C-alpha cells in the first residue's frame, strides 16, 4: 500500500512538472479587445460636401500608408453637426464654417479643434456663359431666370447671402423668385451644370471639379465672413488611435500638397 501511494504521488509530481514545463499556447492569443490597432481600426469622418474629394483622396493615401480604413460621410455642415450632437458615430468633423465646429465644442463633444483650410466664393455659369453674366449685378437682367444658392443655414448659402447683400442684389433675387436652392455646395453646382440655373454662387474649389462650368466672377473676401474650415477631433475619435493619427495627418505637410492640388489653402 505504501508503494502504491508513493507511485501515485510520483505520478502527480510528474504531471505537475510537465504542466509547468509545457508552453502555454494561450498566451499567444490576445483577447478580442486588445486586438485593435491603428492598422485594424476604422475611422468615420464627417466632412463638408465641398471637401469630399480632397478628403477621400487623403483617406486613400492614409490607408495605403497605415492600413487604417476611413469612411467619408459628406453633407451640409449644419446637418452633420446636428447628427453628431444627436449621437452619430463620427471620429472627426471637417466643417465649412467655424459656427458648427464651435457648437460641438460648446456641447462638450470636441477633444481638439484646429483651423485647417480656407476657400474663395465665386459666381459660376455654364461653359461659354450663354447668359452673359459678368457680375452679380447681371442677376437682375431678364436673361437670368434662376440663380442657384445653397440653403440658408448651409455655410455656402450663408456666405452667398452676405456677399449678395453687399452687392445689393439679394433682396431683388428673392422678390422676383429667381433663387433656386441646393442642398449643399455640390448640389448647388449641379443645378448650374444641368442648366437649371443661369448662374450660381459656390466655392472656387467646386468650380474646378467640372469642365461644364466656368467662373464669371470672384467675390472680394471683405464682402463675406472668412471661409474657414475647422477640423474637429471628436471625443469619440480621441479614444481611437487611428483617428488621432489621421487628425495629425490631415494637418501635415504631405496633406498640404494635396489641398493645393484641389485649390484649397491652408489656414494661417
Structure description:
The chain has 268 residues and is of the alpha/beta class. It has two domains: 38-118 and 229-266, Periplasmic binding protein-like II (D-Maltodextrin-Binding Protein, domain 2, 3-Layer(aba) Sandwich); 121-223, 3-Layer(aba) Sandwich (D-Maltodextrin-Binding Protein, domain 2), CATH 3.40.190.10. It has eleven helices and eleven strands. It has helices at 2-21, 52-66, 77-85, 98-106, 155-166, 170-175, 185-193, 204-207, 235-238, 241-249, 253-261; strands at 42-48, 69-75, 92-94, 110-118, 121-126, 147-150, 179-182, 199-203, 213-218, 228-234, 265-266. The strands form two sheets. It has a six-stranded mixed beta sheet. A five-stranded mixed beta sheet has the order 7-6-8-5-9. Helix 3 packs parallel to helix 4 (98-106). The termini are far apart.
Largest β-sheet summary: 6 strands, mixed
Number of strands: 11
Shape: elongated
Label the CATH architecture of the largest domain.
3-Layer(aba) Sandwich
Number of domains: 2
Q: What is the CATH homologous superfamily assignment of the largest domain?
A: Periplasmic binding protein-like II
Strand order in the largest sheet:
2-1-3-10-4-11
Mean pLDDT: 89
Which stretches are low in confidence, meaning pLDDT under 50 for 5 or more residues running? 1-37
The N- and C-terminal alpha carbons lie at a distance of: 91 Å
Computed structural class? alpha/beta
CATH class of the largest domain: Alpha Beta
Rounded to an integer in angstroms, the radius of gyration calculated over CA atoms is 28 Å
Summarize the amount of helix as a percent range.
25-40%
**Total number of helical segments?**
11
Q: How big a fraction of the residues is strand?
A: 15-25%
Q: SSE order in H/E notation?
A: HEHEHEHEEEHHEHEHEEHHHE
The name of the CATH topology of the largest domain is D-Maltodextrin-Binding Protein, domain 2
Amino acid at each position: 500500500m505504501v508503494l502504491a501511494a508513493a507511485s501515485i504521488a510520483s505520478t502527480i509530481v510528474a504531471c505537475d512538472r510537465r504542466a509547468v514545463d509545457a508552453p502555454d499556447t494561450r498566451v499567444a492569443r490576445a483577447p478580442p479587445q486588445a486586438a485593435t490597432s491603428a492598422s485594424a481600426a476604422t475611422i468615420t469622418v464627417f466632412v463638408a460636401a465641398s471637401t469630399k474629394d480632397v478628403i477621400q483622396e487623403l483617406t486613400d493615401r492614409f490607408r495605403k500608408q497605415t492600413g487604417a480604413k476611413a469612411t467619408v460621410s459628406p453633407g451640409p455642415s449644419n446637418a452633420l453637426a446636428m447628427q453628431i450632437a444627436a449621437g452619430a458615430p463620427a471620429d472627426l468633423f471637417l466643417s465649412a464654417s467655424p459656427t458648427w465646429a464651435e457648437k460641438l465644442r460648446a456641447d462638450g463633444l470636441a477633444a481638439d479643434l484646429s483651423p485647417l483650410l480656407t476657400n474663395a466664393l465665386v459666381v459660376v455659369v455654364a461653359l461659354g456663359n450663354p447668359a452673359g453674366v459678368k457680375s452679380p449685378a447681371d442677376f437682375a437682367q431678364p436673361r437670368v431666370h434662376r440663380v442657384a444658392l445653397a440653403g440658408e443655414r448651409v455655410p455656402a448659402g450663408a456666405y452667398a447671402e452676405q456677399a449678395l447683400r453687399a452687392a445689393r442684389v439679394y433682396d431683388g433675387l428673392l422678390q422676383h423668385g429667381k433663387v433656386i436652392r441646393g442642398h449643399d455646395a455640390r448640389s448647388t453646382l449641379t443645378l448650374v451644370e444641368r442648366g437649371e440655373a443661369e448662374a450660381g454662387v459656390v466655392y472656387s474649389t467646386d468650380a474646378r471639379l467640372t469642365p461644364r462650368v466656368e467662373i464669371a466672377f470672384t467675390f472680394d473676401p471683405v464682402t463675406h465672413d472668412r471661409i474657414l474650415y475647422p477640423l474637429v477631433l471628436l471625443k469619440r475619435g480621441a479614444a481611437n488611435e487611428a483617428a488621432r493619427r489621421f487628425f495629425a495627418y490631415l494637418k501635415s505637410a504631405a496633406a498640404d500638397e494635396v489641398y493645393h492640388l484641389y485649390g484649397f489653402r491652408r489656414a494661417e
